[in-house]
Every structure is written in C-alpha cells, then in structure tokens.
Amino acid sequence: MSAYKDLSAFKVYFLDVGILRKKAGLDARSVLNANDLFTEFKGSLAENYVLQSLLVQFENTPAYWTSDGKAELDFLLQAEGTLIPIEVKSGQTIRGKSMSIYESTYGPKVKVRYSMRNLLRQENLLNIPLFLADRTKFFLDKQLQ
After folding, report:
1. Residues 99 and 57 sit within 8 Å (Cβ to Cβ)
2. What are the C-alpha distances in Å from 141 to residues 34, 77, 81, 88?
3. Between β-strands 111-115 and 125-129, what pairing exists: parallel, antiparallel or unpaired?
4. Is residue 75 part of a domain?
5. DSSP-assigned letter for residue 34
6. Helix H or strand E segment including 76
7. Considering just the CA atoms, what is the radius of gyration of the chain in Å?
8. Is residue 119 part of a domain?
9. What does the pLDDT look like over 28-82, one tens digit per residue?
C-alpha cells in the first residue's frame, strides 16, 4: 500500500483522545453529556479513538484514502492480504457516499463501518459499534473466514 502513498493527502491525529479533548479545550463533562459544543467535534474524537484501537490490533498502519476530492474514507487498512475500507460515523446516521464510491470502484471483499448502531454483518459490510472497536481484529477474522 505504501507504493501508492500520496504525501499531499493526509490527516493529522493525536496519539490519545484525552489529549485531543484537552487541546481542543473541551471540558470532560461536555463529552459525557453530549452537549452542543461536543456535537461538532465528536467525529474527530471518534476517528482518533478508532485509529488508536486499530494501531494496537494490526501490524499495518491504516491510511487515509481520497479520490480526487470526490470521496474520502477515514481509513484503508491492509489486513489478511486484503484492503479493507473503513468509515467512522460518530452517531446513528450512517449514510456515506464515499464507501459506495470505493465499493463500486474496487469491490472490496469486506468493508467496515464504526457507528453507534448495533453489531451487524450484512453481506460484505461489518458494522462495529464504536465501543467494540478494540474487538475489530476478532470480528474481521470471522468475516474473512
């Protein structure tokens, strides 16, 4: 995957969501109580949280994917000999055209979406609740068997 790396397209992440919250000036209560201030920032926190989890579970570092500004995926992970597109949704709304564009272009064997919805396996889509991000490798191993 590194052979296709475009250094002009990247995202910056903090090593820890607690540090990110603190640097953003968010009070811990605003995150726990999900007030309006947090609503605008929760996507970034969710992405950082998922990245931390993926880095611990997998040998390869996930990459950010974009298609000439038309579509973007939060992560593209190389695991078990396949590329896995990953989308992170911080709430219940899960629509995303980027995953559809990636799927129609590359036809991945499996795709992963993190959200606040329940654990679900539907055809080649694996929806993992955010709170189960630390079990991603386990779920992917089952999906890829």
Report:
1. no
2. 33, 14, 12, 19
3. parallel
4. yes
5. T
6. strand 72-79
7. 15
8. yes
9. 666 556 555 556 667 778 888 899 999 999 999 999 888 877 888 999 999 988 9
**Does 3 fall in a domain?**
no
Domain hosting residue 83, numbered range: 13-144
pTM as predicted: 0.80
CATH number for the domain spanning 128: value is 3.40.1350
Scan for tokens 């564009």, then name that residue.
101
- Tens of pLDDT, residue by residue over 94-107, are 777 899 999 999 99
User: How many structural domains compose the chain?
Assistant: 1
Residue 3 binned pLDDT confidence (cut-offs 50, 70, 90): very low
Residue with tokens 């038309």: 70
State phi, psi for 16 to the nearest 5 degrees: -145, 135
The encoded tokens of residue 92 equal: 């219940």
- Residue pair 130/49 in contact by the 8 Å Cβ criterion: yes
CB 54 within 8 A of CB 62: yes
Q: In the sheet where 111-115 sits, what is the strand order? A: 63-66, 72-79, 82-88, 111-115, 125-129, 120-122
